[in-house]
Amino acid sequence: MNASVQPSVNPHSHAPSYYAATANRQLSYPALAGDVQADVCIVGGGFSGLNTAIELAERGLSVVLLEANQMGWGASGRNGGQLIRGVGHDVERFANVVGSDGVRELKLLGLEAVEIVRRRIEHFNIPCDLTWGYCDLANKPSDLEGFAEDLAELRSLGYRHDLRLLHADDMHQVVGSSRYVGGLIDMGSGHLHPLNLALGEAAAAQSLGVQLFEHSAVTRIDYGTEVVVHTASGKVRAKNLVLACNAYLNGLNSNLGGKVLPAGSYIIATEPLSQAQARTLIPQNMALCDQRVALDYYRLSADRRLLFGGACHYSGRDPKDIAAYMRPKMLEVFPHLDKVKIDFQWGGMIGIGANRLPQIGRLKDHRNVFYAQAYSGHGVNATHLAGRLLGEAIAGQESRGFDLFAQVPHVTFPGGKYLRSPLLALGMLWHRLKEVM
Q1: Where are the annotated coiled coils located (predicted)?
Q2: What is the rounded CA–CA span in Å between residue 252 and residue 372?
């Protein structure tokens, strides 16, 4: 096996990913120095923080955003690039909290989330290889039955994009693999270059007057009517604070940290494929994702590489060789790629919540401290929705969406800092065993 990877010398620079190698702009922002005052301080320079900053700046508030590394450094700049409808998993479970109307509203917000991304890209003219077309892949007949229910529900919600159910004989239309028994095409979802989107949104935020600071890790927060956020070389005084760190909260707030579990996800990128190879693999250039617990997700890049990801790890330990770990999974789907080289391999942490619904709200003890985290694999769209809802709430605008999310309770993972990952890993192993029983 060949794997050509350029190691990241600086731990604060972007992961050695295909995205970093093909970033279409190089941005640099200073570290915070001295005292700064703002209406809102945001901690975290990923999609959540950047989009909250844009929403607030558009509403006339002054904003300072602090990032410990570089803009888009975490999951926002290294994820699978799949832009898929929906937020959460099985939101009907929350009917006892938000009511049936609230459940319907959550589903509609999951559709609106993709539209927010679409409009942001269009409004700020962000080049990020946005491509429409997505297919859910059925691993077994019960998955296909669930897709039929999803299709009916989406139509009942007034979903305006084309949907089509595929059976086994039709799957060659979307994927060059015999692994699946059916699928659901959704032309309102798709894929993009996530780091280029994040960098474009950073530039957009700055153009609106947001003060952006990189290499400015937060060392301490003083809570109160005025929040004071400290870094190694400065501090920000603000009326409101937004914690948008997700899986990289790193103990900054123990209450929020216990409710989100960092889980590793990994991606490999092949060498560029020929047009014939690309058409054989994914004839309609869609993003694709299967339904297993340890799911596979994949798509083609703009230069016809196969980007293949998955293998969510709850153990807290990354594979020593990501390419060696992921390549056999790719070959299970596409065995004819056995001679294709792997040019990039990388991973990162996504934030998982116990109930798989994004956590968007404010702290009970500090009502001027807001947060958004735990997107559980739906981060590209859900982060943009979170930014919209936080912007509305902080600006004092009525936000039914914010209130809905804030109503849902989120449990703290058991086992504390050191045991919660192994305990969840055991639980996920049980679910994987059930898939083959």
Answers
A1: none
A2: 14
Report whether 126 contacts 120 (CB < 8 A): yes
Q: What percentage of the chain exceeds 70 in pLDDT?
A: 91
Question: Could you give the CA distance from residue 100 to residue 89 in angstroms, rounded to a whole number?
Answer: 16
Give per-residue pLDDT as tens, 266-291.
Answer: 999 999 999 999 999 999 999 999 99
Residue 277 one-letter amino acid: Q
User: Of all helices (H) and strands (E), which one includes residue 48?
Assistant: helix 47-58
Q: Is 112 exposed, middle or buried (0-12, 13-18, 19+ CB in 10 A)?
A: middle
Q: Quick one: tokens of 78? A: 């290294």
Q: Please state, rounded to an integer, the average pLDDT across all residues of the chain.
A: 92
Residue 381: CB atoms within 10 A of its CB come to: 27
Tell me: pLDDT of 437 over 50: no
Distance CA 200, CA 302 (A): 17
pLDDT number for residue 413: 83
d(CA 9, CA 17): 13
Tell me how far apart the alpha carbons of residues 265 and 254 are, in angstroms, rounded to a whole number.
24
Residues 191, 284: Cα–Cα separation, whole Å = 12
Q: Which of 206, 191, 211, 170 is nearest to 65 (CA)?
A: 211
> Cα(306)–Cα(327) distance, rounded to whole angstroms?
11
From 433, 312, 392, 407, select the one nearest 91 (Cα to Cα).
407
pLDDT in tens, 114-150: 999 999 999 999 999 999 999 999 999 999 999 999 9
Distance of alpha carbon 388 from its chain centroid, rounded? 16
